[in-house]
Amino acid sequence: xxxxxxxxxxxxxxxxxxxxxxxxxxxxxxxxxxxxxxxxxxxxxxxxxxxxxxxxxxxxxxxxxxxxxxxxxxxxxxxxxxxxxxxxxxxxxxxxxxxxxxxxxxxxxxxxxxxxxxxxxxxxxxxxxxxxxxxxxxxxxxxxxxxxxxxxxxxxxxxxxxxxxxxxxxxxxxxxxxxxxxxxxxxxxxxxxxxxxxxxxxxxxxxxxxxxxxxxxxxxxxxxxxxxxxxxxxxxxxxxxxxxxxxxxxxxxxxxxxxx
Length: 260
Known about the structure:
Oligomer: single chain
Number of helices: 11
Order of helices and strands: HEHHEHEEHEHEHHEHHH
Radius of gyration: 17 Å
Number of strands: 7
CATH superfamily: SGNH hydrolase
Distance between the termini: 5 Å
Number of domains: 1
């Protein structure tokens, strides 16, 4: 379901994989901490650009685009510099900053399962990204459902049910997948699968953001497989605070999510 349209040819012909995430704190969790060391362990050079604005929804991204607002904290992660925060930047400035191989869009977590929150803003963003970066593989980063005991003010939209939130997010995936032919980076599915292991419902640190050890690692493993085409189960890197068991469980969850 997730991998069928993803183009891995890019990662086989380039020396450095350049990624741009048009995101928020969930892309911060997914790509800024563990993705570079996972890639480096296999000798893969990456340059990750994360446009961060906390809680940013598709509607807010579109508003920043229309006003050309320098709203984003521009975080860059490379093999040589794990994380550098540059000056604030506009979306158009980021899109003009050289050729990217992969560009991801995502919805704010609280809106990810609300169908009416996607359009017309998603179409506007896709059209703009494709106009500036026609050669890039545009993709959709799936967010994850909250912990069962989360206190997020938007959780009541889903009746404080992790299952209902996850099912709603999955239903809304049809919008980017079917309407826009965007391949999905299934971080949310990987987190949900990991919750079904001995790790339980412990992958978030505050009910919705991923914990710094195996939560972020799980999401990064999904990204690793998607941009490199490599099986993360063969990757020996783990967060220094992880156990070998936690590495196996999270890698297995990530691999299964990308294989669905």
